[in-house]
Amino acid sequence: NTNYDLQDLHCDDADCDPLVSGGGNTPPTLSSVTDSPDPVVSGSNASFNIYWSDADTDSVEGIICKTNAVTAGTTPSCPGGAWTGPSSLTGTSPVSLTYTAQSADVSTSPNSYYAFVCDSPTGDCSSSSSGTFSVSAQATSILQVQKTSSGYSSAVPSATFGSAPTEGNLLIAM
Asked: Residue 128 above 50 pLDDT?
């Protein structure tokens, strides 16, 4: 443990660091964010990777917001709603987060997002990096079953979604 006299400390926003080159805390720097897959199928996970650095080598939390606003603090939040996060603390870039795509996200695609990383000791946050992701509906498989004299049997491969079955045959959605 290192002991410091109060005169040796520089305090800024409840963060007290030894006075070195002006002291204080430097917010983390966000360099980029990626999302995959894009598009993501409703009900599946979209992965976000936030690439960052921090001059103070602090641990950070990442968060993906729906608007370009973050409420800084030791547990960051998004006043306009979050797609995902905050993440657990990490000292390693990238921060990885996942979001399970919802069926309601299909009609709003492409969906805008804003990534932030925030320091652990002070809650200071980076500026944002933005992107969009799209959500597609789950594919529905259709099977046409042919009617025979002894009942229903073999599948007819030509069935497509929205098509009517051949007379007497059945369409089964899976």
From this structure: yes
pTM of the model: 0.69
With CA atoms as reference, report the closest residue to 52 among 124, 140, 147.
124
Helix or strand or coil: residue 104? Answer: helix
User: Which is nearest to 109 in space by CA: 81, 82, 140, 137?
Assistant: 137
Q: Residue 8 above 50 pLDDT?
A: no
Contact 93, 126 (CB under 8 A): no
Residue 58 — pLDDT band, cuts 50, 70, 90? confident
What is the rounded CA–CA span in Å between residue 103 and residue 161? 19
Q: Is the dihedral of CA 72, 86, 98, 84 positive or negative?
A: negative
Both tokens assigned to 147: 């009617």
Tokens of 97: 């987060």
CA distance 26 to 119: 9
